[in-house]
Amino acid sequence: MVAQPVQKVFPLTLKITNLPSSNSSRPWRIPVRIDCYLSHIKMAGLSFDNFQRNQYIASKGVAMPKATSTGTTIVGCKFNGGVVIAADTRATAGPIVADKNCEKLHKLSPKIWCAGAGTAADTEMVTQLIGSNLELHSLYTNREPRVIASLTLLKQHLFKYQGHIGAYLIVAGVDPTGAHLFSIHAHGSTDVGPYQTLGSGSLAAMSVMETQWKENMTKEECIKLCADAIEAGIWNDLGSGSNVDVCVMEVGKDAQLLRNYITPNIREQKAKSYKFKKGTTAILRESIYNLVDVEETEIPVPMEVDA
Amino acid sequence: MSNTIASEYGHTDTSVPIEHRFNPYSDNGGTILGIAGEDFAVLAGDTRHTSGYSINSRFQPKIMDLGDDLVMSANGFSADGDALIRSFQQQLTWYHFNNQNKKLRPSSAARLIQHLLYGHRFFPYYVHTIIAGLDEEGKGAIYSFDPVGSYEREQCRAGGAAASLIMPFLDNQVNFKNQYDPATGQARLKTYLKLDEVLNLVRDAFTSATERHIEVGDCLQIKIITKEGVREEFYPLKRD
Amino acid sequence: MEHDPFKWGRPDNATYGDYDYRISNAKNTEFPSMHTQQPIVTGTSVIAIKYKNGIVMAADNLGSYGSLARFSNIERLIPVGKDTVVGISGDISDLQYIERALDELEVENDYDGASHPFKANHIHEYLNKLLYQRRSKLNPLWNAVVVAGINSDNEPFLAHNDLLGVQFSSPTLATGFGAHLAIPLLRKVADKEEDVAHVTKEQAREAILQSMKVLFYRDARSSNRFSLVTIDKDTGISFEKDLKVENMSWKYAETIKGYGNLQKF
To answer: Which of A95, A267, A278 sits opposite B213 (nearest CB)?
Structure first.
């Protein structure tokens, strides 16, 4: 089926605030035309339209774009009356640090959180999708969402995509049945245990877990253990770095996100200032084009009411 | 995935099937940087040694003092780097033996290194090599080499893992590229930087590369060549 | 470092794409014979740490044939000279070749009985040359080697060497899986060279024992029987054989049921 361009005219209002006019909050109205191709958006699920084309151009020796991967250390550990998860905050694209302080702890529901390793976009999207479905399910059943339900939704979704969704997750939370901790691999397999580690720094973190973990820990001991395990990843695994994020989920309490719980990698002051003198960047050529005709329409502004 | 052979140093080629055999190369990360001044030269490098996502050593210095007020570093595949420096040192010993301990000039050292590298034209040393010293007039000299021996004398050069991050910074701060004099509107005139200014640039280059490249960090080694001789400084870098 | 010895020296899948099995399956009669190298019987990690007066090093006694635990009594810590021990992982037949080469070297060096004694740094350099020469002939010795001992300045010496001729030293060293699982633990004891002065023999030994336990927990090609050597610059080499991983804890395992859906509530 050939896609036909559908022309639509959308009314769009742009608020221009920095005009040298005295009445700076006056809205302007600019007509904008947007051409949309609507024929492909009817099918549900992910689009594989470009698969064959990509295979073909890859066979011609064109390199595929690299996804940002959170080459990561993530951990989780249970304690008496709850569960803790933690993550480092480095995101990499190959050997380059793409983000020095990214968030790898995702909320599935208020008391169920998830640490993600693997392809950044996949962990983000799969987590949002299952978060939404969990919310709908909870609304439908009028019950608090359960960790086991989020585990099942995630693993069934990931299994369906046979590992092509590169999300490696540690799922943890508290629900009416208690505190739970699981890990899920991209192909859909799941694991249970009192402690879990995943990501490129999982071995460094596991070495700490295997030597320091004990039964019946307190919340504080558990947070310390998780933070230590992440630090082992930060120092010893090149895919992990920067700060430690922690999320504590305790039975009968709201989940607590401790963003940047430890920041052991603050950059020292630079030796020199790199402020340039004004005019250092020369203007070699200047041309101004009128791209749109701005049509001014008076719109009555509602009377301002004091708050 | 397609059967591509890709490397930083070569083009991508799919017409030949890949041979499944022993790969004699690896990449040990790290980065080096040389800057020449009016009467000095510096050669700096981090001391992190890596394989994949692992840190093999946090302190494996790779800037070598060759004697004759010459320093050298060969960054990339460290086994080749070590072998190249060792064979240079052996050649230098023979040179001294045959020439009544005559001091080797940087320009001659550079030509020798070209021959050592080109001697392995079809099984190259997988390294980016930089040497630093003082020329006959006492001016700072930096020579940099590609893996098979093409070389050039330069004012400054970054090599290794974070070379592509540091080089544009050097172009701007050492050779004043893209900088104009606000008063005249003309390109900013080239001037020699003083040693302390250069050391500041080197330290900032390495702290910045450490921030954005995972294979750079742990410790910074700087060798400084002046008419007084060669001295060395170390500065800590982030270890994550 | 890649911890699976079967993948050592091969192009990395992540960089070069998956291996195309049509190549190994092809009938290549018109090609000259290419002997693809791979390790056969393998030994796993060697781990070592410096302390203020010397070095502690350990390696288990298993010889694996793929996933088969084939030999259970392989000694991979090889004493050379008076105060050096070489720990070898990777291919066992290449290990035995290196053992023989070192023995020959020792005999050759000492046949007049008045020679300069071998020190750890000399042995390391010899092995580095040997391994680099073999890799340059594209016929590598498939090993990663840790040389531990006392150097010519009478200081503790610890250095690593592998099948590519790559060489480095550090206060803590480990080959194979140990680089991932043991190094984080050992670096907690001695991260920088300056830390070594504050590490006692007991602390170093304890860290090594703990690491051997974690390796047995998590490295599927390891065993619970190992040898441990302590090289002290004052008291020399003390060899401990037939050690066993102790104080393991598998108790939590009984609380685990199924893989997610069989949790007790």
So the answer is: A95
